[in-house]
């Protein structure tokens, strides 16, 4: 019984953390300069792909959802490569800029997104980040506690 109690926080929480954020970057290892240097590659690749799509289809998400997913994935991968969390406000700002570039003329009923106002956007970005930090803190706290029990 007792063994199981101890086993759970030590192994389950880091596992959960890994599931939550895949290749979790090291805390404090984020180089924002490098991130901002790398993200335009994703934007350029997305722009290249979008130019193979007829301009009048640019508001039809289904026509290029694959490209969009690949773009999102690219920002996530590049952000993690330089040790930053994804999403983060800087990366989100970059993605919003891409949205403006391609979807500024799309109305809400044509495309199913429009940049939400900041009051909506900021919690959307901040909450997952806080959650990740809280989870990491919990793991440290739990392992310290487990250490005291031993
Ligand atoms: C961040 O990246 C830039 C550009 O690659 C580099 O010049 C700088 O030294 C890096 N900063 C840190 C703290 O690694
Ligand atoms: C995201 O991109 C990476 C690197 O290009 C790739 O290995 C991975 O399979 C991609 N993930 C998705 C969900 O497309
Ligand atoms: C949006 O419309 C303006 C004016 O018609 C045009 O100049 C611009 O190129 C359009 N932008 C996009 C992304 O379609």
UniProtKB/TrEMBL annotation:
Family: Belongs to the RAMP family.
Main location: membrane
Keyword Lipoprotein: no
GO CC annotation: adrenomedullin receptor complex; amylin receptor complex 3; cell surface; lysosome
Signal peptide residue numbers: 1-29
One GO term (biological process): positive regulation of protein localization to plasma membrane
Superkingdom, taxonomy of origin: Eukaryota
Keywords: Cell membrane, Disulfide bond, Glycoprotein, Membrane, Receptor, Signal, Transmembrane, Transmembrane helix, Transport
Transmembrane segments: 120-141
UniProt KW Disulfide bond keyword: yes
The gene coding this protein: RAMP3
Membrane topology recorded in Swiss-Prot or TrEMBL: Single-pass type I membrane protein
InterPro entries the UniProt entry points to: RAMP, RAMP_sf
One Gene Ontology MF term: coreceptor activity
Subcellular location(s) per record: Cell membrane
Protein name, as recorded: Receptor activity-modifying protein 3
């Amino acid at each position: 019984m007792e063994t199981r109690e101890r086993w759970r926080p030590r192994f389950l929480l880091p596992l959960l953390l890994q599931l939550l954020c895949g290749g979790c970057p090291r805390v404090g290892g984020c180089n924002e300069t490098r991130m901002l240097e790398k993200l335009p590659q994703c934007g350029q690749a997305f722009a290249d792909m979008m130019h193979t799509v007829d301009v009048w289809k640019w508001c039809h998400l289904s026509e290029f959802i694959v490209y969009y997913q690949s773009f999102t994935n690219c920002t996530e991968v590049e952000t993690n490569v330089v040790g930053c969390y994804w999403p983060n406000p800087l990366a989100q700002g970059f993605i919003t800029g891409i949205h403006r570039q391609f979807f500024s003329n799309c109305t809400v009923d044509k495309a199913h997104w429009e940049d939400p106002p900041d009051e909506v956007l900021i919690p959307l970005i901040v909450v997952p980040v806080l959650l990740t930090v809280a989870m990491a803190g919990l793991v440290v706290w739990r392992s310290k506690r487990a250490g005291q029990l031993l």
